[in-house]
Write a structure and sequence with these properties.
Residues 212-403 form the Uroporphyrinogen decarboxylase (URO-D) domain. By secondary structure, this protein is α/β, with parallel strands linked by helices. It has one domain: TIM Barrel (Alpha-Beta Barrel), CATH 3.20.20. It contains 13 helices and 7 strands. It is globular. The chain starts with 53 loop residues before the first helix and ends with a helix.
Length: 414
């Protein structure tokens, strides 16, 4: 069916394949309710809802039922809001204070084991410890370093579209078994029954602009659409092969990628560009993950409000972070809560580094109050990498409030 008018209560329940999925067909990371949510706000979605196969739904549920930790039932009746705070909080950010932060981390749970997959280097460097012969994006020697330009966007890899044939002729192959040996060892040693998230950075748009530069690629959508489609098809096929190979060689439960398609003031490009170039390719990657029995998690900074209905339509399971100050969190939760799992992210620009510990705690409570629902659908983490200017007492307030308030908030639903 098409939702062309609204997400009114009357629309829910007309078919088991509405956004409110039938209780027998649910996944753990998708909402399943015996009573459909009342959505007061009218939303002109104009998207087709594509149900996922019942056997896949059951497979995903059975996969997660094996995990003894809190994430096993986050779209059911979790005992507390799942915490993934460690994933965006790294040792290099805090310098001499890291031991204090690490001591705090050891006191609180990390409900997901995330493992980074081995993606290609830009250029071959035999001196790199992660060097794998023939596993790079560029078949050319690296250019000499610029004497003036800085920043990733200043170093364009495909300077002219005439280079595309040679680049694609030497395209990296992610199906090589040796690429997954270390990850398999890490999972075996440290997963401890937790949900395992297989991760890599740079999915579609981020990979595009690393090849062409951001200014170039934004023009290329209009000036060289055929070439862009060809390159994006190759990137999509690589991502799908990476998903299938990871599922074959590793015991994972979900796929996580980054793809910043929003700015603080709005999307990176128009909805028309998204629908032509990105939507069908995201759909292919999401479906590949689902076919492998894996959930799909997407990190994208910025205001992505116009894209969310489309991402939900094509099967995205988890979205991160709903960036603070870029969208109205309460509006997003009202319009899309129950249709996708929010991996909500603490603001790392203002509140966490510059607020007081009490302001940090207040923001944690606001996040949980906004996104958590009776049947779950909310996980908590940082909105991006935690920076070194975050006071240790603020880090403690973040971890402590996420745990205790997440526990208290869930208690009301028992």
């Amino acid at each position: 069916m098409y939702l062309e008018e609204s997400l009114s209560p009357e629309k829910f329940g007309e078919t088991p394949h509405d956004f409110c999925l039938h209780p027998e067909n649910r996944t753990i990371l998708r909402v399943a309710q015996t009573e459909c949510p009342v959505v007061q706000h009218r939303v002109n979605l104009q998207v087709q809802l594509l149900p996922r196969p019942v056997d896949l739904e059951r497979q995903l549920r059975l996969r997660l039922d094996q995990h003894p930790h809190a994430l096993e039932d986050e779209f059911g009746t979790p005992s507390r809001v799942p915490m993934l705070l460690h994933m965006w909080h790294w040792d290099k950010a805090h310098g001499d204070q890291w031991e204090e932060v690490a001591a705090i981390q050891r006191e609180y749970p990390m409900d997901v084991k995330h493992v980074h997959l081995h993606t290609p280097a830009v250029y071959q460097d035999p001196n790199d410890p992660s060097y794998v012969p023939g596993y790079s994006w560029m078949p050319f020697p690296p250019p000499p370093p610029s004497k003036t330009a800085t920043g990733m966007d200043a170093h364009v890899l495909i300077k002219d579209w005439e280079m595309l044939d040679e680049v694609l002729a030497h395209w990296p192959d992610p199906t090589r078994p040796e690429l997954y040996v270390k990850q398999a060892e890490e999972i075996a040693a440290d997963a401890q029954g937790r949900y395992v998230l297989l991760a890599w950075w740079y999915c579609l748009y981020e990979r595009l602009w690393t090849f062409r530069g951001m200014e170039n690629i934004l023009c290329d959508f209009y000036d060289y659409p055929d070439e862009v489609h060809r390159l994006m098809d190759a990137i999509t096929d690589f991502n799908c092969a990476l998903v299938r190979s990871a599922a074959t060689h590793l015991k994972g439960d979900g796929i996580f990628v980054s793809d910043d398609i929003g700015m603080q003031t709005g999307p990176m490009f128009s909805p028309a560009i998204f629908e032509e170039f990105f939507k069908p390719r995201y759909a292919k990657i999401f479906q590949t993950a689902h076919d492998c029995g894996l959930h799909f998690w997407l990190h994208t900074c910025g205001n992505i409000r116009p894209f969310l209905p489309h991402l939900i339509e094509i099967g995205l399971d988890v979205i991160h972070p709903i960036q603070k100050y870029t969208m109205d969190e309460q509006e997003i939760a009202r319009d899309f809560g129950g249709h996708i799992c929010f991996w909500t992210g603490m603001d790392v620009q203002q509140i966490l580094p510059k607020g007081t510990p009490e302001e940090v705690r207040q923001e944690v409570r606001f996040m949980i109050d906004t996104y958590d629902r009776p049947n779950g659908g909310c996980m908590i983490t940082a909105g991006n990498g935690v920076t070194g200017d975050v006071p240790v007492e603020n880090a403690f307030a973040f971890y402590d409030e996420a745990y205790h308030y997440g526990l208290a908030h869930r208690a009301q639903y028992k």
